[in-house]
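INFO worker-7 received task bundle
INFO bundle size: 2
INFO processing item 0
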Amino acid sequence: MPATITGGYVRNMWLRLIRSHMSALERIREPPVSQLGPEPEPDKRMLRRGLLAVRSGLTAGDVRKTAEKLALRALELPELAHASTVAAYVSVGSEPGTRALLDALLARGVRVLLPVLMADNDLDWGAYAGEESLVRVQHGGKMALLEPAGDRLGPEAVRDADVVLLPGLAVDARGMRLGRGGGSYDRVLARLERAGADPALVVLLYDTEVVERVPAEAHDRPVHAVVTPSGVRRFR
């Protein structure tokens, strides 16, 4: 039976996966900041596996339909309505789709920056100029990414963004985001903080990926909003 995003199959699969991880999550509920460190990482790995397992059951049709809804919801954000520069990313595989949103922003005249993954997992940036400006890049044993083919603008270019759209696997009631674990966006957020930049931080997810609690470490930073196919939730 093919999985659908809103159907009972995926919802039940999600519930089983989350319940299987709840005992691990309970152990780290509301830890003092001084105790945050490498300890939550095993719990992050378990939660990532569960979330990725659910995503792997989605069809191309599921992803396409939710991408259109995500674009409509995201474009309602005042932050995006008034943005002149947005740092975004090109979704791949079963990630919540971003292509419709990227094209809508470009049509509005917004300058859209897309990441270029470097060898050390840091991110350079390039400008998006439509589908023809993207190239498929295979990064070693990692997934292939669609990246801008034009000039590299440097890692500091993200400081110009009014809004940063972040990839993720989940976000919790505090706005804490669970990423894939590569650390690329931890570096981006640290770079913004050092520069005193304060763009709106927005994560795009499926409805089931907004959860009660994800493990957090001292370097983790909350996002300001999450956009899902059914709506927007703000954390500031």
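INFO item 0 finished
INFO processing item 1
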Amino acid sequence: MKPIKPHSINELMQRVSNIAGLTLGQLASQYQFKTPVHLLKEKGWTGQLIEYALGATAGSKPTPDFEELGIELKTLPISYKGKPLETTFVSVTPLLNVTGMTWQHSNVRKKLNHVLWLPILGERDIVPFDRTIGSGFLWHPSAEQDAQLQRDWEEQMELIALGRVDEISGHLGDAMQIRPKAANSRIVTDAIGPNGQIIKTLPRGFYLKTSFTAEILKQQFQL
């Protein structure tokens, strides 16, 4: 039976506690959740399984996963040593009509205002179904982290507004980068060009860098 949405943060965290220590395969079979044979083409499967088991409601809407609680869920693949193995997708980057956008009202800030982090042992030598779910925890950005994210957001959004989207690379940003987010290079979208004209480019997304998420883990678990 599909889990109903949690009605309080305590209820959500109880569910998080209940799945800690299980493998993804054990959790999937517990809910008869559809499991692919290969995860190469199903990169989002882990997140979908966890969302399903915890009763997330947002789906693909640009709101936090647990809408009524205002909490965003982020699974975080970690190494044997507890270090993040990959960057964390936050939200799609707007490439048009960006004038007047502010950090305070941005989708990125809404998504990162209150995050439920769920570390999962994700070393490449462990098949996905045998990967263990760790101890999830709630996180709010500190004033310092918020300021760091704001600087990265403003620096890169300014380039988009100036029609310089193609100058943005993963090297920009201390905590957060913008990089292409598309299944393949044939998928393109509209963006502002150098002279204010509309150009075609790859869709982009905001991603938290592993150095930033490593700090969050370090704070939480005193690694």
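INFO item 1 finished
INFO post-check item 1: The first helix runs from residue 9 to 19.
INFO post-check item 1: Helices lie at 9-19, 24-30, 45-54, 107-112, 143-161, 210-221.
INFO worker-7 idle
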